[in-house]
Structure formats: C-alpha cells, structure tokens
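Supplementary Note 3. Input sequence used for the single-chain structure prediction.
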Amino acid sequence: MSLVEGVVRPAAPLPALLRRQQLLRLTPGGWTRVLAAPHADAARECLALWAAHGWPLVVTRQPTPGGDAIAAGLPAPARFGRRRIALSIAPAAVMFLDEFPPAQAVARLLSRERAAPWRALVATLAANGCAARVYGGFGWQAITRLPYVHADSDLDLLLPVGGAAHADEVARLLAGAAWDGPRLDGELLFPDGAGIAWREWREHRQGRASRVLVKRLHGVALESPP
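The predicted structure, written as discrete structure tokens, is reproduced below.
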C-alpha cells in the first residue's frame, strides 16, 4: 500500500539512462522539498530518517513515457510497517544515480557457515561476466543497516547479462549452485533495460513456458523472447 504521493515540481530533464532498480541520491534541497509535501505521519517519520542519513530512493515503473518527474519510492523497514512509500521526484532534486550494493556485500548479513559459499558463488558469477547486485530486503539492509531481512526473505539478485546466451549461463550457474541459504531470486537485466526473473527465463529456454513476464521502465508484458 502506498502511504504518500509527494510531488516535487520539475526543473530539469529526466536522466537519459534511467531504468528500474536504479537508486536516486537526492540533493539536500530535494529532500527539503520532499519533506515539505503533505505526508501521512508514518511516511513522514520514515522519510525524515532517510533524509537525515542521505539514503537513496529506488526508481520504480514510470507511468508514461515523456513524463516530467521520476516515479520513485522506498519499501519501509519493519519499524514502519514494511509499507511502500511512493514519491514523484523532480529531476533537479537528483544529485546522482546510484546502484544497489554489489552482491558480495550480503556476506556480512549471512551466518559464518554461509558467507564463504556466498562469496564463492558471487565470484563464479563475476568470472562469467555477471557483476551481480543485491536488492530487496537484503539490499536495503546492506544500505541502511535497518532490519529488513526475516526468516522467509529471498535473496534478490540483479544480474546484468549481455544477451540470451549469457543469460542461459548465468541461470545455469544459479540453478546448479551449491547453496543452502535463502532462496535465490531476482532478475536478469538485459542491455535494453528489460528485466526477466532468472527462474522464468530458465523455464522458458528449457521449453517449459511459452512466455515470460518482461519488466521495463514503462510497463510489464508477457512476451516470448528468443
């Protein structure tokens, strides 16, 4: 459930390379304008904490191409009820675009027994040309050190790939990983910005699904990729 629709008036063009799952770092003035907008009490408290620490917002699906503001938000941690806060941000309020933490940053959130296998898996992905990042609960906890992760949390990976063959190899590595920790979930990120769940991609490429859900900056569709 969205707690807020805070609108900041635009004064600059949208970033040309904007995509889902990027992070926005706001200027101090940008945070001032966000906090000046009307918010529910729980949202205001959460946003004030974010502003005080300079923590990022995440780029979400944009409502229409050619818009003059960036749809963004944050999933509030447990102390704020895990609700989603939605915001509309002026490009002029963005100091720079950022990314979720590299996957190896998760090691400190894992038990000692799981940290080493995790580092090995991340290294294997990197050796195969995939610089994985972590988003979702693990990603936000790595950024903020607030309690996001719980017993049923998946480990969500953002997996940049160069094309179909590369996606096949990354999905194969994940499916065959010697890993007994949190369930490995997440998306293959293709060069055009399309995101496809790695498990769905594998099902499709093995002939067990005719279509997959493809997520893009401006929409979601069931498609039959090559």
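The chain has a mean pLDDT of 91. The longest helix spans residues 112-127.
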